[in-house]
């Protein structure tokens, strides 16, 4: 990476773009709605069950000008979901400023482990034990999505729910490879603790990206 490109990436004017695609949002509050996804490379949170480990190494994904990302996005949808990897590894301000200038809705899916940058209409916070979220993202999250892999994750979910703002919607979502085991546990838990809702990866059931 030459010095000019490196500086542009550091400023968020270029981002390591892994992939971008138009599909149906499969999870959380906006499930079932069409959206354009922008997957940004780079993540050191390191969830062992991550289903996009190929996103972790930012160097594998070409630095792409945010103007090009926005031009592609606006031709597909009015709702743009920025995901990763961990998108907040990078400064999201240039990307979201341009998306908002085009009148687009900006959503992010994040672990919240890094400084909250960007202008967001919807923040889906999915905390991980290895690197906890910043206070700022707890305060601004619209939904809390807790991935349930084992029984200790219910304890962690409650710990995280105590930190988010009062308007944040609470979701428990089974880790895909453990779904047969943990779905009944989640259903039972939500029935006993109705402040939570069940989230499923419906796009996987529908066999779409």
From TrEMBL:
Source domain of life: Bacteria
Alphabetized PROSITE patterns for the sequence: RADICAL_SAM
Cofactor binding note of this UniProt entry: Binds 1 S-adenosyl-L-methionine per subunit. Binds 1 [4Fe-4S] cluster. The cluster is coordinated with 3 cysteines and an exchangeable S-adenosyl-L-methionine.
Cited function: Catalyzes the complex heterocyclic radical-mediated conversion of 6-carboxy-5,6,7,8-tetrahydropterin (CPH4) to 7-carboxy-7-deazaguanine (CDG), a step common to the biosynthetic pathways of all 7-deazapurine-containing compounds.
Subunit structure of this chain's protein: Homodimer.
HAMAP family referenced in this protein's UniProt entry, alphabetically: QueE
Name of this chain's protein: 7-carboxy-7-deazaguanine synthase
Encoding gene (name): queE
């Amino acid at each position: 990476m030459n010095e000019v490109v490196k500086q542009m990436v550091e400023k968020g004017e270029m981002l390591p773009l892994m992939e971008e695609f138009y599909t149906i949002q499969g999870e959380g509050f906006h499930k079932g709605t069409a959206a354009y996804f922008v997957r940004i490379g780079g993540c050191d949170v390191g969830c062992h069950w991550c289903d996009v480990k190929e996103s972790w190494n930012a160097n594998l994904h070409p630095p792409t000008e945010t103007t090009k990302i926005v031009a592609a996005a606006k031709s597909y949808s009015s709702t743009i979901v920025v995901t990763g990897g961990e998108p907040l590894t990078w400064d999201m301000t240039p990307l979201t400023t341009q998306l908002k200038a085009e009148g687009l809705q900006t959503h992010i899916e994040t672990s919240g482990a890094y400084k909250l940058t960007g202008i967001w209409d919807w923040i889906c916070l999915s905390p991980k034990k290895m690197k906890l979220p910043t206070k700022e993202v707890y305060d601004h999250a619209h939904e809390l999505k807790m991935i349930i892999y084992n029984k200790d994750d219910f304890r962690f979910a409650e710990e995280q729910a105590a930190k988010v703002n009062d308007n944040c919607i609470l979701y428990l979502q089974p880790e895909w490879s453990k779904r047969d085991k943990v779905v009944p546990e989640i259903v039972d838990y939500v029935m006993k603790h109705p402040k939570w809702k069940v989230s499923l990866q419906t796009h996987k059931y529908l066999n779409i990206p």
